[in-house]
Amino acid sequence: MNKKIYFAGSIRGGRIDASLYRRLIEFMQQTDIVLTEHIGNAGLNVLESALDGEIYARDTALIGECDILIAECTCPSLGVGYELAFAEKLGKPCYIFYNKERANLSAMLKGDPYFKVIPYTTEEELFASVRELLND
Asked: CA-to-CA distance for 5 and 25, rounded, in angstroms?
């Protein structure tokens, strides 16, 4: 309980799952601290580029601060892949969730034994897996 979670989800790669991210973030916030709650904001400006350097500095600092990184990777995202590799470099525990009926996860993620990859098919299954992970 009270883990600092870096939640990673697609922003510029596509916002099709933004409402799922919001529900998942709210769920995790019931027991823990989500450092990146803005990922669930449906109004997030995905085209903003003037702040790219600030975003990089903020997000890499938050990865350094987190206890665990949880990524929802159904919608492919270069940024999420980078965040996962950065967290691995820092030795942060990384958990990747993806809907196996909607996505074919990259071999670079599935093939890396460092990452704990957890496929799901329903939102209920996703939330149960996250609950189990956070209760450990």
From this structure: 10
